[in-house]
Design brief:
The protein is mainly α. It folds into 2 domains: 1-193, MFS general substrate transporter like domains (Growth Hormone, Chain: A, Up-down Bundle), CATH 1.20.1250; 204-412, Growth Hormone, Chain: A, CATH 1.20.1250. 83% of the residues lie in helices and 0% in strands. The chain is built from 17 helices and no strands. The longest helix is centred in the middle third of the chain and has 33 residues, at 131-163. The radius of gyration is 21 Å and the shape is globular. Residues 195-204 have low confidence and may be disordered. GO terms for molecular function: transmembrane transporter activity. The chain crosses the membrane at residues 12-34, 46-68, 80-100, 106-124, 136-155, 167-193, 214-232, 252-268, 289-305, 311-338, 350-370, 382-402. It is found in: Cell membrane.
């Protein structure tokens, strides 16, 4: 029989499911909504808005570490949900007013999303001490989150198409309000992500970590690989979302694009992970695999360029390839940065990773949200995807050739 504490820990997966469904449903249409209402001012403003949102949703918790350490996970989660709901209620007025208000509103939305995600993950780590139980719980919440990611876009696109934008926003707000009401029931109270006092010997300097990293060619390579990969990842809810919306009038097919990505990741993660483990056993490091993932991202964008003219089924193939790249890239980011700087404090590496990913995904969201609407009237968006394809494929090919040459030298 499951213990009450075990049952309460497992029930966190409900929150993960609701959050993931709301998040994926919102982001599958947000770039479309912004383009429809803001692009009259400038497609550049759409790109900047998506960049601001991505920056704050990915990296804002790095700069409020003191507040996070002093607050319980319940307080952090509820605060995050409050920011999300408040910003969504202000979204329509913000889009119709001064563009600066929109940026502030999206920054608040991003901060809320970042707080919720950080607090929920931190709650599991702080609450569940046994590593096997912790891994099992993370596996459970990851599965339910992916399920939410598969269902959210389908439901959201149907609601948006059938009932309009107002009801769509109301449903998303409702999901977040429901999650906020569940939080004090699902989460154990008085749990802190870090409740011990920080000592001087545990204090680290992310500034020093960044400075030192620029002195090592190997570290710079790892950083560049992670940065470019995060730019690729940032396309899914920006430029790709805009293309999906224009490919079909069917809300099912529009939502299916995102569902296919989520389902593909679920199906492919285990076999891809086995291939990675085999490669690492043969001496390959995490950075080399990330560079390979850039090539796979590039192939997916090349396919996407072929499909954006009207062949939505080619875009589905491109999405499956994109998912393979995600399965390689996402699990290896932390490992690559730790391998490159093994003597640095882990907390600095994790914060460093958040900063790189935040800047990279923000740049990707900005480029996709700006360039795709600008090129679409002339039917030239395929050139954008071809350019991104080259950015991914060229480093992978060069790295592969360098590796082959090195092996030949060793044999001699």
């Amino acid at each position: 029989m499951e213990k009450p504490s075990d049952s309460k820990n497992s029930s966190i997966s409900v929150n993960y499911f609701l959050n993931s469904a709301a998040y994926s449903g919102l982001f599958s249409l947000l770039s479309v909504i912004l383009t429809g209402q803001v692009s009259a001012t400038s497609s550049l403003c759409v790109g900047l808005a998506l960049g601001v949102l991505s920056l704050f949703s990915r990296g804002s918790t790095v700069f409020i570490g003191g507040l996070i350490e002093r607050s319980s996970t319940v307080s952090l989660t509820e605060t995050g949900f409050g920011f999300i709901v408040f910003s969504l209620l202000l979204l329509q007025p913000a889009m119709g007013g001064f563009i600066g208000f929109l940026f502030l509103d999206l920054a608040l939305l991003g901060l809320g999303l970042s707080l919720v995600n950080f607090a929920l993950r931190g709650h599991i780590i702080a609450r569940v001490k046994d590593k096997k139980s912790q891994a099992a719980l993370f596996a459970l919440v990851t599965m339910t989150a992916n399920l939410g990611s598969a269902i959210g876009p389908l439901a959201s696109n149907y609601i948006y198409k059938a009932f309009g934008q107002t009801l769509f926003v109301i449903v998303i707000v409702g999901l977040y309000v429901f999650s906020a009401l569940l939080t004090p029931i699902v989460l154990t109270h008085h749990v802190f992500i870090r409740n011990e006092k920080s000592s001087k010997e545990n204090t680290s300097s992310i500034v020093k970590t960044i400075t030192d990293s620029l002195k090592s060619p190997g570290t710079v390579l790892a950083i560049l690989a992670v940065f470019v990969g995060s730019i690729m990842n940032g396309q899914l809810f920006a430029g790709m979302a805009l293309e999906f919306h224009s490919l079909s009038d069917s809300p099912v097919i529009r939502g299916l694009f995102y569902s296919i990505d989520a389902i593909s990741v679920i199906a492919l993660q285990m076999p891809v992970s086995k291939l990675i483990s085999r490669g690492m056993a043969n001496g390959q490091n995490a950075t080399s695999f990330i560079i390979k993932s850039l090539g796979i991202y590039g192939i997916s964008f090349a396919l996407f360029a072929c499909g954006v003219s009207s062949y939505w089924w080619i875009c589905i193939i491109a999405l499956v390839v994109f998912s393979i790249a995600e399965c390689i890239y996402a699990p290896l980011i932390n490992i690559a940065l730790v391998e490159a700087q093994p003597d640095k404090p882990l907390v600095d590496i994790l914060n460093y990773r958040l900063i790189i990913a935040a800047i990279g995904e923000s740049a990707g969201s900005f480029l996709g949200g700006w360039i795709v609407p600008a090129l679409r009237p002339a039917g030239l968006t395929a050139w954008y995807w071809c350019a991104l394809a080259l950015v991914g494929i060229i480093p992978a090919v060069v790295s592969n050739q360098i590796g082959k040459r090195g092996k030949r030298i060793i044999r001699r």
